[in-house]
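Exam review. A common question shows you a sequence with its structure tokens and asks you to describe the fold in words. Practice with the pair below. Do the first one on your own.
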Amino acid sequence: MIQVRIWDWPTRIFHWALAILIVALVITGNVGGNAMEWHFRCGYAVLSLLIFRFIWGFYGGHWSRWRQLACSPELIRQYFKTSVTYPPFLGHNPLGSLAVIAMLALLTLQVSTGLFSDDEISNAGPLVSLVSGSSVSLATSWHKGFGKTFILLLVAVHLLAILWYLVKKKQNLTLAMLKGDKTSATPAQSSKDGPANWLLAVLCILVSAGLVYALINLGATAV
């Protein structure tokens, strides 16, 4: 068996940072009050990570790139056919790829609506002043209702899938995301994961954070 580097350090840091921030967002959102200040900060951090992940999908390690997330309807149909036997996927399988895209898309929608949400008490998103009252109401309704629910459901499905792979297929996906490596019976391309890639990742996250900073200050500039 050959050890293959699948998840580079930037991808792994992104994954675990995002997981921690989602937990923090749920807690601070439910607590409310003064905790909302941290809710907003965590939301800005998530948006920065999402922009970073979009960029990293073009410049990151081999298995972190968008072209590896193959999830066309035909591929998913073939994946579920019992007559087809697939070798173990080193990256994401078609269903996993679809789940990743769905999670990233939903999180992007969730943090975006948070920028325009207003609880009509003491907390308002930084871009509320840029849109109409009806748009704020719609964004708030989604952010506090369906959006939050859908994300929690996807997280639950994700955790159940990890457990299923561990119990049924004896594949520890959590360990792979911690260590970055998977075993393969045949040679496979490894993701580049060295100082040059790490420096590129730092530049990407700085650009992402800069874009978010500029975005959240648009409302203040308009006022």
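Now try the second one, then compare your answer with the model answer below.
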Amino acid sequence: MEFDAALLALPVKMVLVAAIVVSGSLAAQKAGPFVGGLIATLPISAGPAYVVLAMDHGPAFIAESAVGSVSINAVTVIFAMTYAVLARRGAGGLGSIAGAIGVWLLAAFAIRTMTPPLWFGLLINAAALAVGVPLARRFSRVVIPASDGPRPVDLVLRALAVATLVGVLSIVSWHIGAVASGILALFPIVISSILVVTHRAIGGPAAGAVAASSVYGLAGFAAALTAVHLAAIPLGSAAALLIGLAICVMWNGMLFTLRLKRQRRVAAAT
């Protein structure tokens, strides 16, 4: 039954991820790294994965999975900052993403081994954000170079490649157990894909700025996962996931609005 549910959700998940990679890549080039980072942290990959889990398991399972995901979110913050540092130092697109994913895998393995409680997950999120936010402010100050943008065929091919990879991960996840699947649901496939495309199109510093800017959105994602944990048992899985999605959208929307207001104040003062 679990595998059947995964197959039903797979086409939708692949299309959503392909669309978000294209949108995030173009936004990073046209609207700047801040918007690209916000798009990268929307729950496009983790959201469908949690829906599939909810179709086959009860609210208690979703609540427990969310606890692990809170800790993994802190690992994603580390992933983003690792990529930003490597990209700024000229490691190249493949080198930067390989290093960042390597760090993510090592930290995720440690989290899987410890299975920390919610309070510990929130604590390491706070620690990661305390380091990540100042670095994000520093690394996001990048002038985006002029670019004609990728050709349409390049976007289609890259989106198809990413969607295929997500599909493979989705199918494999149902063969490795529930706990490991919950960790795999938060594998940073969407943000990784956006960074690779952006790095190739407009360079390492700009891609690093997108990675750094995603830290702001990941703060809201931690709050969303916490809400899912708290709401799943009393309200049910569907309500909990909708609450989590609403928090993500509202948080990123608030950040975008505050950014616009700040830009308008700066423009009015000059």
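Model answer, second protein: Residues 143 and 206 are 7 Å apart (CA to CA). Residues 2-269 form one domain. Full marks require stating both points clearly.
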